[in-house]
Amino acid sequence: MDWTYWFALSALVICNIACIFHFFRLVGLGPPTDYSYRRGSVQKAVKYAFTRAMNPAKKESAFLHLPTYTAGILYHLGTFMGFFLFILALLRINPGKNTSLVLAAFLLISAISGAAILLKRILKKELIALSNPDDFISNILVTLFQLITALMLLDPSFLSAYFVITGILLLYMPVGKLKHTVYFFSARYHLGFFYGWRGVWPPK
Amino acid sequence: METLSKDKIQQGLSVLNGEMDGKLLTNLNSCVHCGLCADSCIYYRTEKNARYIPATKVDLVASIYRKYHTFTGKVWPGLVGARKLDENTINDMVDLLYGACTMCGRCTTHCSVGVDISYVVRKGREMLSNMGYVPKTLQSTVDAAIHTGNNMSITTNEFVDTLKWLEEDLQFEVNDKNANIPLDEPGKDMLYTLNPREPKFFPLSISAMAKIFYAANESWTLSTNMYDVTNYAYYSGNLKEAAIIAQRLHDEMENLQAQTCVLAECGHGSRAFRWEGPNYIHKNYPFDTITSVELLARYLKEGKIKVDPAKIDAKVTLHDPCNLVRSGGIWKEQRYILQQCVNDFTEMTPHGIDNLCCGGGGGQLAMSEYNERRMNIARLKADQITNTGAKIVATPCHNCVDQLTQINVTYKMGVQIKTLAEIVADALILDEK
Ligand code: SF4
Ligand code: SF4
Question: Is there an atom of ligand 2 within 6 Å of B41 CB?
Answer without folding.
Answer: yes
